[in-house]
Design brief:
- By secondary structure, this protein is of the alpha/beta class.
- The protein has a single domain, classed as NAD(P)-binding Rossmann-like Domain (Rossmann fold), CATH 3.40.50.720.
- Helix content is about 45%, strand content about 15%.
- The protein has 7 helices and 7 strands.
- Strand 2, helix 2 and strand 3 form a beta-alpha-beta unit.
- The longest helix has 29 residues.
- The radius of gyration is 17 Å and the shape is globular.
- The two termini are about 30 Å apart.
- About 50% of the residues are buried.
- It comes from Reyranella aquatilis.
- InterPro entries: KR_dom, NAD(P)-bd_dom_sf, Sc_DH/Rdtase_CS, SDR, SDR_fam.
- This is SDR family NAD(P)-dependent oxidoreductase.
Length: about 240
């Protein structure tokens, strides 16, 4: 695992689910953590309180990460309170479940903005500092839907496939600057999205159960800790990809 003592990490969409688990795991490895949220202030504050209770350093920072001005303001706030950002985890996401005949242009655009454009905006904001310091770690939270049909819709598929392309594109261009860019692609993790109707049971997963947010966080720490891995997507599917 990564030793992140003295490092600053930003996790987008970190008030619950996978983002929350990632934020807590980064703090346990020694990082000061900025917990981004859009609406769930109380949940974000709870994550920050848990980190501080354990002796770590953290802050909650509100921002719609699909908005460029909001991202600039968020980064400035984190740098004022915690310092320059060394680790970025692009986790914020939107999953609008709808049939292909009911999918609207607004829903498509909003999904691309929140799931894909946000990763571009946040990456663009932190990269200059990482390249100057010759060290940085960027992890994008993708999905098995980037390569499979998934259960949400083609808008979601497109956003996550785009995120993996973004991962490879940045990785190839910043590797010589000491910055690695990787993706972690979970499938059917026991989060609110799955419990809310995406999958009623884990019967079709060979392992026989849903994944956990903590297992996703383990994969994030793994790629952060491996300085030789870049441009890769780590799949977490409980064997679902075998089918």
């Amino acid at each position: 695992m990564a030793c992140l003592s003295g490092k600053v990490a930003l996790v987008t969409g970190a008030s619950r689910g996978i983002g929350r688990a990632v934020a807590l795991s980064l703090a346990r490895e020694g990082a000061a953590v900025a917990v981004n949220y859009r609406e769930r202030a109380a949940d974000a504050d709870e994550v920050v309180a848990a980190i501080r209770t354990a002796g770590g350093k953290a802050m909650a920072v509100a921002a719609d990460v699909s908005d460029s001005a909001a991202v600039v303001n968020m980064i400035a706030a984190v740098e004022r309170e915690l310092g320059l950002i060394d680790v970025l985890v692009n986790n914020a996401g939107l999953a609008i479940m709808t049939g292909i005949d009911d999918l609207t242009e607004e829903e498509f655009d909003r999904t691309i903005a929140v799931n894909l454009k946000s990763a571009f905006l946040c990456t663009r904001a932190v990269l200059p500092g990482m390249r100057t310091r010759k060290w940085g770690r960027i992890v994008n939270i993708s999905s098995g839907a980037a390569r499979g049909a998934g259960g949400i819709g083609p808008h979601y598929n497109a956003s996550k496939a785009g995120m993996e392309g973004l991962t490879r594109g940045y990785a190839a261009r910043v590797v010589k600057d000491g910055v690695t860019v990787n993706a972690v692609a979970p499938s059917l993790i026991e989060t609110d999205m799955v419990r809310g109707g995406l999958a009623s049971s884990p019967d079709r997963i060979p392992l026989g159960r849903f994944g956990t947010s903590e297992e996703c966080a383990q994969a994030v720490l793994m790629v952060i800790g491996n300085a030789y891995m870049t441009g890769q997507t780590v799949a977490l599917s409980g064997g679902l990809s075998f089918l």
